């Protein structure tokens, strides 16, 4: 459970999907950033092991992950882990919330500018389901979905389709 004591809102945006906020608090003398969507905790900068594990585990399964898509930017930890792998030549990150991408780019999230300056990083503002549906076959060697807190804890209800098998048409 996130520690919300003395959290200060530092950024807020509204989109068709609701409200996205970024909060700052101090924990044991360290600045902590916390991301919330529609008031629900999404992630913070204290516990990032699941984001990093998602990337490192998936990368280990692929011999040549030269083109990787990450669905969901969050605070950048999954993308950072992907970019830490020298085999990755292009890491495309698809983020639904333009404001979150802006906070990463402008330094509101301090690690954001350096992460997104990596020449292998590509940031796309859009819905990852649409990006995948419009991608040519074999566009990506690996696709990582980090858009929710798992299929049972959706940030947005429309993301449920991401966890379903592809329709058979």
Residue-averaged pLDDT: 87
Return residue spans where pLDDT drops below 50 for at least 5 consecutive residues.
none
Give the strand order, joined by hyphens, for the main sheet. Answer: 1-2-3-4
| Oligomeric grouping of the chains | single chain
- Percent strand: 25-35%
- Tally of separate helices: 5
Number of domains: 2
CATH class of the largest domain: Alpha Beta
How many strands, what sense, and barrel or not for the largest sheet?
Answer: 4 strands, antiparallel
Distance between the termini: 42 Å
Summarize the helix and strand pattern as letters: EEEEHEHEHHEHE
The fold-level CATH name of the largest domain is: Rossmann fold
Rounded to an integer in angstroms, the radius of gyration calculated over CA atoms is 16 Å
Name the CATH superfamily classification of the largest domain. Vaccinia Virus protein VP39
Could you say what the CATH architecture of the largest domain is?
3-Layer(aba) Sandwich
Which range best describes the helical content: under 10%, 10-25%, 25-40%, 40-55%, 55-70% or over 70%?
10-25%
Number of strands: 8
Record keyword descriptors for this entry:
169 residues; single chain; 5 helices; four-stranded antiparallel β-sheet; alpha/beta; Rossmann fold; globular; four-stranded parallel β-sheet
């Amino acid at each position: 459970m996130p520690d919300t004591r003395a959290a200060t809102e530092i950024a807020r945006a509204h989109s068709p999907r609701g409200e996205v906020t970024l909060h700052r608090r101090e924990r044991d003398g360290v600045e902590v950033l916390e991301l919330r969507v529609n008031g629900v905790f999404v992630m913070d900068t204290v516990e990032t092991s699941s984001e990093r594990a998602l990337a490192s585990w998936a990368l280990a399964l692929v011999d040549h992950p030269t083109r990787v898509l990450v669905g969901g930017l969050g605070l950048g930890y999954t993308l950072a882990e992907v970019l830490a792998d020298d085999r990755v030549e292009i890491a495309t990150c698809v983020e639904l919330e333009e404001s979150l991408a802006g906070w990463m780019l402008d330094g509101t999230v301090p690690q954001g500018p350096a992460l997104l300056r990596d020449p292998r990083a590509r940031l796309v503002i859009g819905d990852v389901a649409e990006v995948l549906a419009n991608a040519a076959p074999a566009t990506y060697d690996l696709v990582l979905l980090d858009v929710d807190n798992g299929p049972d804890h959706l940030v947005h209800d429309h993301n449920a389709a991401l966890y379903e098998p592809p329709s058979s048409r």
